[in-house]
């Protein structure tokens, strides 16, 4: 298994994995995660993934096993409010490993490679959102040194 930067030709597979990530979250909070039809979501995601490949301050990493992409991570630099001493942070917007390759250290390898990309971009703080009900996700990040910062509270009206 190896980790490499994604290319345009990987986008179809990345889209499939992205949908696997989205589908895995619906049961955590159905009203919160209720989505537009799959085709529409995939169109939006395609624009987003394509632009992440082009921008110098974002990247997509893929995990490849026997010529098959089994997981990917999308990272990007974003601005923090200018009151902070460090006004830039790295955000991990997507991380997914396809179901039959989970629990073998693939996500850990993708994260390690992402940290190295962020370091090259002179980033000192990395953040991401994780659903509190996402046990594998929570365990993965806690084990890689992420600490809780905010709790997003939501209410349906
Ligand atoms: C979360 C996810 C990316 C983990 O990928 P993975 O390749 O299986 O993770 P790894 O094998 O690198 O394991 C990382 C850690 O998580 C733990 N873990 C993995 N799957 C687990 C599970 N089902 N339950 C509990 N812990 C789990 C591992 O034991 C490991 O812990 P350790 O560091 O103490 O050994 C994967 O489950 C996934 O794609 N889930 C669906 C999408 C998702 O939730 N993405 C994260 C969004 S924030």
Please, could you describe this protein's structure?
It is a single chain. The chain has 157 residues and is of the alpha+beta class. It has a single domain (2-128), classed as Gcn5-related N-acetyltransferase (GNAT) (Aminopeptidase, 3-Layer(aba) Sandwich). It is built from 5 helices and 5 strands. The protein has helices at 11-25, 30-33, 38-54, 106-120, 135-143; strands at 2-5, 58-65, 68-79, 88-97, 126-128. It has a 5-stranded mixed β-sheet, sandwiched between helices. Strand 4 (88-97), helix 4 and strand 5 form a beta-alpha-beta unit. Helix 1 packs across helix 3. The longest helix is centred in the first third of the chain and has 17 residues, at 38-54. The mean pLDDT is 97. Bound molecules: coenzyme A (COA). The site of coenzyme A has 20 residues, from helix 1, strand 4, helix 4 and helix 5. Coenzyme A binds at residues 21, 24, 95-97, 102-108, 130, 134-137, 139-140, 143.
The CATH architecture can be given as 3-Layer(aba) Sandwich
Distance between the termini: 47 Å
Q: Approximately how much beta-strand content do the residues carry?
A: 15-25%
Could you tell me the mean pLDDT?
A: 97
**Biggest β-sheet description:** 5 strands, mixed
Silhouette: globular
Radius of gyration, taken over Cα atoms and rounded to an integer in Å: 16 Å
Poorly predicted ranges (pLDDT <50, ≥5 residues)?
none
Helix content: 25-40%
Helix/strand structural class: alpha+beta
The total strand number stands at 5
Strand sequence of the main sheet, in spatial order? 1-2-3-4-5
Provide the succession of SSEs: EHHHEEEHEH
Query: Could you tell me which ligands this complex binds, including any ions or cofactors?
Result: coenzyme A
Tell me the count of domains.
1
Look up the CATH topology: Aminopeptidase
């Amino acid at each position: 298994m190896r980790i490499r930067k994604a290319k345009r030709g990987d986008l179809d597979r990345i889209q499939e994995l992205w949908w696997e990530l989205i589908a895995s979250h619906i049961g955590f909070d159905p009203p919160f995660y209720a989505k537009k039809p799959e085709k529409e979501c995939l169109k939006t995601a395609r624009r987003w993934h394509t632009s992440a490949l082009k921008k110098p301050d974002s990247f997509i990493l893929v995990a490849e096993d026997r010529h098959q992409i089994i997981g990917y991570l999308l990272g990007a630099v974003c601005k923090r409010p200018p009151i902070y001493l460090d006004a830039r942070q790295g955000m991990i917007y997507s991380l997914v490993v396809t179901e039959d390759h989970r629990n073998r250290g693939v996500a850990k390898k993708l994260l390690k490679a992402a940290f190295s990309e962020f370091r090259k971009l002179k980033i000192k703080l990395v953040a991401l959102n994780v659903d509190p009900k996402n046990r594998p996700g929570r365990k993965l990040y806690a084990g890689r040194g992420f600490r809780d910062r905010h709790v997003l509270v939501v209410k349906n009206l």
